[in-house]
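Human: Here is a favour to ask of a fellow structure person. Comparing notes only helps if you start from a blank page. Give me a protein, with the fold worked out from its sequence. Please set it down just below, with no commentary around it:

Assistant:
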Amino acid sequence: MRKRLSVVGATLFALVVSMVVFTLPAHAAAGFTVDGGRLLDANGNAFVMRGVNHAHTWYPTQTGSFADIKATGANTVRVVLASGQRWTKNEAADVANVIGLCKANKLICVLEVHDTTGYGEQAGAATLAQAVDYWISVQSALTGQERYVILNIGNEPYGNQNYQTWAADTSTAIQRLRTAGFDHTIMVDAPNWGQDWTFTMRDNAAAVFNADPDRNTVFSIHMYGVFDTAAEITDYLGRFVSAGLPIVVGEFGDMHSDGNPDEDAIMATAQAQRIGYLGWSWSGNGGGVEYLDIVRNFDPASLSPWGQRLINGANGIRATSVEASVYGGGTGSPTPTRTAGPTPTGSPTPSPTGGTGGCTATYAVSGQWSGGFQGDVKVTAGRAINGWTVTWTFGSGQTVSNAWNATVTSSGATVTAKNVSYNGKLAAGGSTSFGFLGSWTGGNPVPSVTCTAS
């Protein structure tokens, strides 16, 4: 977590063919694995991270925070460690103690080296190669912990300068870890202070994933001021999902010095797409971003407004987190998207299928609660098409508040959804889906839908 960057024009997304990913691991892993773009725990159950970041290396005596974090309902904690270039190195004994605290509190440990933050722009920052040296130096504490630990090689490993070597350097770092005998799932952060405004990680993710001989790498995007609209959030995450590449939101907040992130859209999209998220950070922030403390002064009874939103708000940790099954928890499938507290009512209800030229669409209410609901629409091509438009008219005052995998606009009660750049072209018989969050007042009947292809 740190700086604001000036947003420049987007680069073209890589060709779909370049995003084809082979997800079968090269060998039977001892812990977490990636399959079909999703993270599975050691029991083979889907696992969706819901948790927070904790700055252990700067506050090493705050070991009670692990139990306090667990009490929020979190299933994961991302722990800040230091490799010695910028902060005092966390030695193997301390790393082993951190893992023990995670296990005692039934938390999955994501361990990260923070010294790499902003390399190329931040004076004294460590390289990814130095981060790998660190992991090898503490390997004794990590071997055998693959069921409980994910290795995040280095935090925000490049700033806004000299980031062009991110893909090559990240691939090399992954391969060095594998050669050294690490069987853990590896997490890699984006450049540009973690926010990837140049799309360097996005456009090179498939190549980096395939550079891992175990095909067991997860990508982490940090969402602050660059991600201040729902459209930017849904587009970025949606491209990874559509490409079958595993993605998590490794850091985010409700405000920042570089802009105002849309935390509601981040959390709603992550929940709807079964993407993990980890809020920054438990406590101890300084330098003008103290508002990012989830609790004040490490006191779990003193939630900040950001902490209240993250833990108890709509799509928050308490409502959506599922404990990893390696600790005896559930299957890892999060509960349907909803506000905290109310229970969804009713099963998914499909609409009549509508089609007027090359495609059909089916509308379903996949989750409903007091005043709100989640809708999902499946589009199927009757012939090869290059784009699609789905329309419907609400009859009971419903409105759409947020959508993913489609550009959705409303005019009165009429809603129009158009494909985005990566899911418009469908072969005959091919299909894609998009979803949205909405509100309702008097009722929530399923409307008829119409699909038109181009």
Summary: The two ends are 43 Å apart (CA to CA).
